[in-house]
Amino acid sequence: MFQNEVLIQSMDLAMEMIIFFRENGQIIYANHLAYQLLEYQDDLTRENISNIYPKVFDSTVFPLQIKETEFGIVHETLAYRKNHTCFDVNMKYMSVKGHDGVYMTMALDASKQNYFEKRVTALDAEADSAQKIKTQFVANVTHELRTPVNGILGNVRELEKIENDSKKLNLLHLMERSCSDMHSIINGILDFSKLEAGKMELEKKEFVFRDMMEYIKSNHINKIAEKGLQFFMTISKDVPETIIGDELRIGQILNNLLSNAVKFTAIGKITVEVVKTAQLKNRVELFFMVIDTGIGIAAGDQDKLFKSFSQVEASTTRKYGGTGLGLNISKQLVEMMDGNIHVESEPNKGTMFSFHIWVDIPGAEADNETDGPISYEVKVPSISEMQNQENCYQYGTDENQDELRKKASRLILSVEMENWEKAEQFMDAIKQLSQNAPQEIRSAVLRLKMAVQKADYDKTQDAYQKFCELALPEE
Question: Is there a domain that residue 401 lies in?
């Protein structure tokens, strides 16, 4: 079929990625640009087309659902590189005449086009509208709220210095945390109102990237350790030491994503990865991934994540707190940095938030220009790691019992220290680990949870002993 050297040479010189594949998805030919942009060497024909365009072709259905009604229609979608990062493309597909069961895709790399379109849109944006007046009012009100909150916080900290009674100190600590939470809410509303009014301006300042990442890590490592989770951070060696951008806002995005990961993960680990994916003169594209093994998000609920004042469901707000502004603010900040943010998730299997932004680099590092995609290695969880994670949730497996014992020991230690907030965190983990247990054990978990929520020491001890007898027999 591809013996015509003139035809092959023409496709290799084309400005589009061209890929031929069979109805089962097996790739049989790709032109030179496809190999270059997707970062494959000589093994692209071993891949399935659904690995390249998973948003268009469903890998779980064989043969693929090829819809004739969509032949020639341009899909604004994502193309996935060999290392599992992605970029925007405009792709269309069609059948190959004279060859039954053979199809082809043609795709244009739209990432640079989208970048320049967003810059033009930002320059042409108008600042006068009724919405901006409303958000300015909100900004004024939230500024005024800072004064009483700061007054309460200051007095609470003075009382903590002179108070010796442990129960009173616990109440003061709770008030201090409440004030800190109020500060976070006020800051979120202020940022949101600035974004809505078009008054948010990014600062361009030179800073050491890895120092910023270490600071972000230090902000979360204690909470992660308290929940008994593992934490990994990997920064590709291609990422510049020094970049020019808004350090505060980049950190704010990562802090939002990491806070959510910690909040919604009771078992397993949290991973942060940063890689450099492109460079154009003194501009570089950085790709961030925040991956957790938490409760996950159903596909039908993922569209709600980035909307203002929105969470997946009302019970999420009651259980975990928050205004639902964090991800919306993060999305807008990412877009102000000429990037996009994406989410991939499955219930009980975890979530991956990924985003890319464009930043400047100092002149010395800009001299090492590598126009186009950058090759790097991204660590992907092994099949055994994924299996172990699934086994944790299957009651009675070795992994499940080990994890239950760890969380139970941390729970009772928190109870002994009368740290009921931490105790509730470990209680949530125990509930998840016992969701497939027999009814008798689930009832014991419920009784233990109710005792913890009431902060009743004696009832918690009794319920804990009963739970251990049923769910954690001595080895």
Answer: yes
